[in-house]
Amino acid sequence: MDILTILAESARSAVGPVAAIYALAAVGLNLHFGYTGLLNFGQVGFMLVGAYGVGISVGVYGLPVLVGFAVSLACAVVLALLLGIPTLRLRSDYLAISTIATAEVLRYVYRAGFAEPLTNGVYGLQNLSAGFRSINPFESAERYGFGVFNFSGNHLWVMVATWSLVGLFALLTWMLMHSPWGRVIKGIREDEDAVRSLGKNVFAYKMQVLVLGGVIGALAGGMMAVHQAAINPDQFKPQVSFFLWAILLLGGAGRVLGPLIGSVVFWFLMNFTDGLLRALGSEGYLPFLSGPDFGAIQLAFVGLLLVLLIVFRPQGLIGDRKEMLINVK
Amino acid sequence: MSSDETTVSGAEDRMAGVEPVPGVGKPDPVLVADGVRRSFGGLTAVDVEHLEVQRGTITALIGPNGAGKSTLFNLLTGFDRVDQGRWSFDGEAINGRRGHQVARSGMVRTFQLTKALTRMSVLDNMLLGAQRQYGERMAGALWRPGWRKQEAANTERAMALLERFRLLDKRDDMAGSLSGGQRKLLEMARSLMTEPDMIMLDEPMAGVNPALVQSLLGHITSLRDEGRTVLFVEHDMDVIMGISDWIVVLAQGRVIAEGRPSDIKSDKQVIDAYLGAQEDEAEAGEGDDG
Questions:
Q1: What does the radius of gyration of chain B's CA atoms come to, in whole angstroms?
Q2: Domain extents for chain A?
């Protein structure tokens, strides 16, 4: 067993395409929950419509990848409106329930028999990355980087594109939150009735945020489609939303860089615990466990780390403890 | 307090000749409500036949717990929906409007349980009250030069109000760090940022320490003296009798009496319905029907 190799491999994947995609989706969730207080437990639903927007456009209709992304964004806007119109006027816990349900319903619809002509049902869609790779400025077969941080040209292209989007939307978040618009948004998080009593159309603001955060989630889904080249509905289970929540709380909700740092640390921990368990297992230190058990133990282990975080650092890694400690009532 | 007395009598002049009977017409009403009804299940919380509020006065809304004061407040300000009824503000029908629309038309409210936005600075709380901000539109927000000047002007106005409400040195503190009384002051100052014609105060003295009560009273009368109309719900009879120009008494959702403080003090029905019961009920508050 080589602990250094495991560490290096974990560090490599902490900045890799998957971490970037989750960071992007978490930037959207940060707008929803971190700034506005919208309890969206169905961010994966936006990723799903985003991934299939690209997947169906590219894989079924053979359209250019950029058209696929445009379709993704349109789907996300429609989903946000459908979700928001009935629920945003209600108390925030209703949004929590309906988002988690909506995301699951979407998954079942996309994998259903009647949707097969478009989605290919449970088998999903394949060969989705050719268009994206055709505009790859790097050599796809070549490896780039230094030391352990080396990636194939294809992965590097996904990373550059996705981390750039993360940076772009983090900047957008910063600009919005340092404006009067952001002040209204933070006010809504504190007490929407107070904001309403000052003449602000709270519903319209929440809808704007739901759409914007959803669109960012859909972009992350689209990047997932071109990264993996193949998607199927069962990748978009509720646990993806929970990972995003873990990332957001780990990094610090309501902080511009929270999702970014959260994703890097989260995927480092995920890969490190996974690698460690596997290494221990192969050395024979875990005789009572077999291969498939590692996944469950690993999730429990990550869960434990997150619980410790909530207990000892509830504001997340870069959150503001002073802000956390103020009695919200 | 001597200066207050002269202004009280000034406002009383406007009410001269108005009969102290429920639903009486006022010479220059800013708010006129007709047939406002709201029931929760089988319980009729509010059933107001006719009510007028005179412009430029301090009108108190009193009544025993559960009389429907807070519910009436919520209805008039668009924070709850009526079963039926019409009301107009400044000659314009505003029934059916939502809370933010009512606020935009110049009738702003505060809350019984103070709603200071605790994790925002005092100054940010104030700036939220400013209306028609270019930077509050999503697209406009990204174009800083478009709203910077307006923001500076709003900040200046906010500072002046904070000065007036003795909160200026707290401007960068989180609103959550203020005391209960200071939060009431902040809420009042913030509502003034909207430049309202009428201010609806829901129990402005609740939970405020006695030392601050006088200062709050001074602020309320100064609102009237600026020409604004104040309608407030309160339990403390000394406060009510001391600063009100007109008092409206609600019981079981209906207006059972209205008049000058002197009329109300001697009204048999009021004494039965409210004043006699005040001792044991004043503490309980009215959270149950809001």
A1: 19
A2: 3-325
For residue A41, what are its two tokens? Answer: 């437990």
> pLDDT tens digits for A68-78?
999 999 999 99
Residues of chain B with Cβ-Cβ distance to A188 below 8 Å are none
Angstrom distances, CA of residue A293 to CA of A290, A297, A303: 6, 6, 15
C-alpha distances out from residue B84 to B37, B42, B76, B111, Å: 5, 15, 12, 24
Are A100 and A41 within 8 A, CB to CB? yes
DSSP class per residue in A209-264: HHHHHHHHHHHHHHHHHHHHS-B-GGGS-HHHHHHHHHHHHHH-TT-TTHHHHHHH
ipTM above 0.90, yes or no: no
CATH number 3.40.50.300 is the correct assignment for the domain at B2-116+198-281: yes
What pLDDT band is residue A285 in, cutting at 50, 70 and 90?
confident
What distance in Å separates the CA atoms of residue A178 and residue A30, rounded to the nearest whole number? 15
Residue A323 φ/ψ region, left for φ over 0, alpha for ψ in the -120 to 50 degree band, beta for the rest:
alpha
| DSSP state letters, A72-96 | HHHHHHHHHHHHHHHHTTS-HHHHH
- Output the pLDDT for position A302: 80
Distance in angstroms (rounded) separating the CA atoms of residues B103 and B78: 9
Which residues of B fall within a CB distance of 8 Å from A190?
117-120
**CB A289, CB A281: distance < 8 Å:** yes
Which residues does chain B have within 8 Å of residue A191's beta carbon, measured at their own beta carbons? 115, 117
Beta partners for residue B36, in sequence order: B48
Q: How far apart are CA B65 and CA B80, in angstroms?
A: 19
Say what the pLDDT of residue B277 is. 52
Amino acid in position B172: D
CB-based contact B128 A190, cutoff 8 Å = no
| Position B283 pLDDT exceeds 50 | no
B77–chain A Cβ distance below 8 A for any pair: yes
The pair of structure tokens assigned to A99 is 């988002």
State the pLDDT confidence band at A322, using cuts at 50, 70 and 90: low
**Chain centroid to CA A187:** 25
| Annotated domain spans of chain B | 2-116+198-281
Residue A148: count of CB within 10 angstroms of its CB: 13
Q: Which of chain A's residues have a Cβ under 8 Å away from the Cβ of B127? A: 180, 183
Structure-token pair, residue A125: 């869609």
B193 part of contact set with chain A, CB < 8 Å: yes
* pLDDT the model gives residue B289: 43
Q: Which residues of B87-109 are buried (b: 16+ CB within 10 A; e: fewer)?
A: bebbeeebbebbbbebbbbbbbb
Touching check for B152 and chain A: CB below 8 Å?
A: no
